[in-house]
Amino acid sequence: xxxxxxxxxxxxxxxxxxxxxxxxxxxxxxxxxxxxxxxxxxxxxxxxxxxxxxxxxxxxxxxxxxxxxxxxxxxxxxxxxxxxxxxxxxxxxxxxxxxxxxxxxxxxxxxxxxxxxxxxxxxxxxxxxxxxx
Length: 133
Known about the structure:
- The chain is mostly helical and 133 residues long.
- It contains 5 helices and 2 strands; from the N terminus they run H-H-H-E-E-H-H.
- It has a two-stranded antiparallel sheet.
- It is globular, with a radius of gyration of 16 Å.
């Protein structure tokens, strides 16, 4: 997994890290039990404060994507092949989706365009033939 940060973005750096880790899990690039770099190592690699990485890891931990252990460090907790989501995940996700869809409608996107774009994004997370997630 390769992380790319946009320091000029309105999106905070910790959120960019979180989002890219989640996308890598969804794309099958990170599977369950995959170790992540330490906060200090990733901070050094990205030339950012390790507390920023720690904030991203804490968010990922609270959302159930990783677990953090003092001995083993940060490890991917689940991948898309890990079975059904934890209780409440679908409802919380749907509420966030509602806001994203409201933004799209408020900006004038048609239902057809939203559907087309959504399908393209979902397809990007589908593994290629013969590739195991």
